[in-house]
Write a structure and sequence with these properties.
With 583 residues, the protein is an alpha/beta fold. The chain has 18 helices and 24 strands. Helix content is 31%, strand content 15%. Helix 5 packs parallel to helix 7 and helix 17 runs parallel beside helix 18. Keywords: Plant defense, Repeat.
Length: 583
Amino acid sequence: MGDRWCGKIGTCQKCLPQMTNPVDVCRRLLSDDQQQNQCLIVIDDLQSTEEWDRIKQALSFGEGCCVIIVTNDSSVAKYCSGQDQQLMFNVKGLCDVDALDLFNTVYDGVGNHITRDEDMIKQSKLMLNKCGGLPKVIVAIGRFLAKSLNWEAMNTNFIHQLENNPELASIHSLFSWLDSYFHNCPDELKPCIFYLSIFPRHHGIRRRRLVRRWIAEGYSRDTDGNLAEVNGENYFSRLVNLSMLTDAERGVNAAGEVTGTGTSTGRKMAMCNVNDFFREYIVSRRMEENHVFALEGRCSQTTRRTGRHLVIDQSWDGDENVFNRIEFSRLRSVTVFGPWKPFLASDKMRVLRVLDLEGTEGLTDYDIKNIVKRLPRLKFLSLRKCKNIFRLPKSLGRLRQLQTLDVRHTAVARLPTTVVKLQKLQYVRAGNTPEEYAGSDSTESSTSVPTCFSCGPVGGHVVGVEVPRRVENLTNLHTLGVMKATVAGLKELKKLTQLRKLGVSGINRRNHNELRAVVSGHGHLESLSIWLDKDTEGTADPCSASSDDFKPPEKLRRLKLHGHTDNLPAWVSALRIFVTPDQ
């Protein structure tokens, strides 16, 4: 079979000088193979359904023919496969080790080798990072650099070189597809794509963080058929399918071994990275869209900066004069990756909706008071991992537009009483837990996914936050955790009928009946995490209670128990269980 195909390839190569039309070449091959009724055709870089229709019309495929189509557009793949998912394969980018192997193979395979010094090796690794694991780009770069001495210039103007250098013409069609895709991209998805350039290269992004930000920005809204949350999850999945977002759990360890499967789908992917190649492309366009701008390094004081989304990079020198020259009138979000400066919260930010301070150093309780005072229209406030935040101010109740409040992994022990005034609040994440329990904020959304039961070790201690009385007033709340359990607090939770995700700590013999009352027959609850407590009588075992009056929540897809228990809940038998231990 191998000799036969080598002969065919040779015949095809002889035909090429006379045949410039690839369809004519395929027709010639097919006519030669009709009697033997076997033929393999690979059509690379198919860009539209119209192209496929013309090819099918021009060629006659026998029953033994196999046609492989390579395309960048998932809609084209679906069309060519007749919507058969089993006939489609989404090729993921190469991991770092495989990308380097491919680059070296291509580079060493080209004549006129240039001996690489340490600086060239460094530059090649930087460029490979920007290739995003795309084989076509890596091959083109390897061939080009084998004949070039100015590697640093290539690295500095990476996207410009790829688009305009005639020696890299083999990948120009990729940019044609990208430009066409962005031009015809649905209006609701385009801002979500440009939004990705906010996050630094190789920065792990929690799925829930991204979706909640999209909602606050108004990019994901409620529609007749879906809630904003569901639409945001769908947008995320579409970006995963386009390989713009990749699984952050898939990587390479110090030994060069690939870690993680990288097979998570959009709805299951708790952490993601932006594909480096797509990020480079987006960054090269973001100023055209006047979308995202950053303060990094040492910035010129004479430049007037404007845009919708401001990024404070870790490298920025913190010059207040530079900051004051920003045009704040259109600013909708501020994301800080460097240390906090008090002047970063300006009362000139009149339309600011998103303030993301996750992991920001130097932030204090006093700073939060000023933030609340100066930025009253916030819809998204994240203080996650800000270790020096101990107390939220009572003035928090002024943020009447607030939808998302994230104080997870801070020292906040209780929410202020005024939080119950936040009628639009949908999402509250709080409590201080070990990292092994905090890595995922995901919930299974598909009704076809079986319920997942996890039982954690005794050491999985969690400190939930105290919630104030009248938390029942927060009728739009759909995510709450981790809450410190009290009898009165649990009774109020029963009135929060929109809850879809709930985390509760301190469950024991004294309060477990109230928890069962909350969960029983709940119409929307999808995820429940319980941290069991110990009381003076010994190990608490709320799971041993009778289930005669218990109605399993129909939509529950994930149950996690942490702590001592000898028995599974009696009502678990009514659910389809998929047991996975916490690691």
